[in-house]
Amino acid sequence: MTPAYPIFVPTKGRHGNPLTIKALERLSIPYTAVIEKQEWKAYSERINPRNILVVPHANEGLTVTRNWIWDYAQNELKSPYFWTMDDNIRDFYRLHKNIKFRLTSGTFLAAIEEFAQRYKNLFICGMAYELFTPRKSKVPAFVTNTRIYSNMLIRTDIPFRNQLFFNDDTDLCLRILKSGACTVQFNAFLIDKAATMTIKGGMTDYYDKTDKRLEFAKELQRAHPDVMKVTWKFNRWHHQVDYQGFKQRLIRKPGLSITKGVDNYGMKLQKKVGDFWKDVE
Amino acid sequence: MPKLIVSEVSIDKLQEDPDNARIHSRRLIDVVKASLEEFGQVEPLVVHEGIVIGGNGRLKGMRELGWKKVSVHEFKGTKNQAIALALTLNRSAQFAEWDLDQLQTSLDLIEVDMSSLFNENELNSLFPGDPDDPEKEWEGMPEFENEEAGAYRSLIIHFENQENLEDFQSRIGQVLSDKTKYIWHPKQVRADLKSLACNDTSLPDICPD
Fold first, then answer.
1. What is the value of ipTM here, to two decimals?
2. How far is A22 from A89, CA to CA, in rounded Å?
3. CA A129, CA A115: separation in Å to the nearest integer?
4. Which of B121, B145, B199 is nearest residue A179 as measured by Cβ atoms?
5. Cβ under 8 Å to B: A residues 127-166
6. What is the C-alpha separation between B199 and B204, in angstroms, rounded?
7. A82 three-state secondary structure
8. Tens of pLDDT along B62-104?
9. Could you tell me which of B48, B28, B47 has the C-alpha nearest to residue B36?
10. How far apart are CA A279 and CA B21, in angstroms?
11. Contact A105 B131 (CB under 8 A)
């Protein structure tokens, strides 16, 4: 099973090692790399040109590109949802019974899409970071009303767009939550991603020109002083957002028919024994 | 205390405050227009020398509705006082909070459509009820169970010297290298996570690595 909605990977300066693109290709998941014109040659040597979309602008930052993708998905593709994934995702996992199973197909994205479509007030959802989800801790399959980073399934028709230059994803989630709508972050499915600012990319120049984390945090605090504070801990600046005030519930669409019990979408948890995969009890 | 004197003036004689620090969203104008149509003007605009310092949103709504005459109260203070009053009028309302029980009672009582004031998402946010139950909402999704499987108890052990360390190692039957940060007792064998995968067996090919 493959996802129904288009997956865009805005990428810049990472043609040598496009992590998310490599991960999606490994799982045979269709995607579109969104690049700037000046990098066409470099990317087209690495990626099938049919999977490349060139934006009409250059060097305006990731926020502009993200909004261009959003408009493209809504107006050109007429798609009710779209995926956007940063190009720093190394792998995808499914968490079950305190074990993280590496995913080997795009079926999990289809499952997430079906979940998202159940609710009329779920505007954005995405997977949690594998690193922040210890497998031995009791966590729910998903949490509502928090920030979604790096991978987002977005409903195209919502009256929002990215705004801030840095931390635009956090800002977007906060504005959505303040409007009363919901976000969902899945723990049942996880991404393994490289830490922000540790690999070279389209925002590297901007990061180098600013006091990085402090500048990002301050921009976000100016936008959301009611729920955010800037703190210094672990030898660096952090933005700390209080999401506890967002208590809105998911509202199911009327007439929804949901399969009772479990639907594994054809996915099986397996262990490789020799050359064969065997089901895990 | 100056008296509140309300007079009726031509809307063409009024000017929006060019220094207004508040921005009026489309939604606000629409809400104001709906109220003006339903209830009429129930409060005067506050005006200083022809400039509206209180009610700029309403003025926009009235203009869009094509009103010719509006009720105003002329503020007689200085320009600086007028600016201070404009800020006070706008800011003071922001200090109020909802009494949610009373709001619920009021919304239940009235028969006027309030959907422009409170849309479904906002009502859901104000009156969320019991929190979502992830287990219930996960119905029809892939199996998910995850229990608390962390340590029953963790503690830090200090060794005074190498001899004590070696003694401890032999007692628990585990070797502590310079890089060891924690151990489990009894020793736990790490699962070979590389040999585990979540495969879609309905697909013809399974990702090999």
1. 0.89
2. 9
3. 19
4. B121
5. 134-144
6. 11
7. strand
8. 999 999 999 999 999 999 999 999 999 999 988 998 999 999 8
9. B28
10. 65
11. no
Taking an 8 Å cut-off on Cβ atoms, the answer to whether B198 and A246 are in contact is: no
Token pair 């720093």: residue: A88
* Set of chain B residues whose Cβ sits within 8 Å of the Cβ of A134: 150
pLDDT tens profile A217-237: 888 888 998 898 888 877 777
pLDDT tens profile A159-218: 999 998 888 999 999 999 999 999 999 999 999 998 765 666 655 565 555 566 778 888
The whole-angstrom separation of Cα A210 and Cα A90 is 27
| A206-233: burial string, b at 16+ Cβ within 10 Å, e else | bbeeeebbebbbbbbbebbeebbeeeee
Please give the distance of CA B160 from its chain centroid, rounded to a whole number.
54
* Neighbour count for residue A270 (Cβ, 10 Å): 20
Buried b vs exposed e over A146-157: b needs ≥16 C-beta within 10 Å?
Answer: bbbbbbbbbbbe
Mention every residue, 6+ apart, whose C-beta is less than 8 A from residue A12.
Answer: A35, A36, A39, A62, A201, A202, A203
Widest distance between CA atoms in chain A: 57
- DSSP lists the bridge partners of residue A53 as A34
Q: Which A residues, 49 through 88, put their C-beta within 8 Å of a C-beta on chain B? A: none
Please name the residue that has the structure tokens 């505007």. A123
Between helix B56-64 and helix B26-39 the angle, nearest 10°, is 70
CB contact at 8 A, A214 and A160: no
Q: Is B117 on the interface with A (CB under 8 A)?
A: no
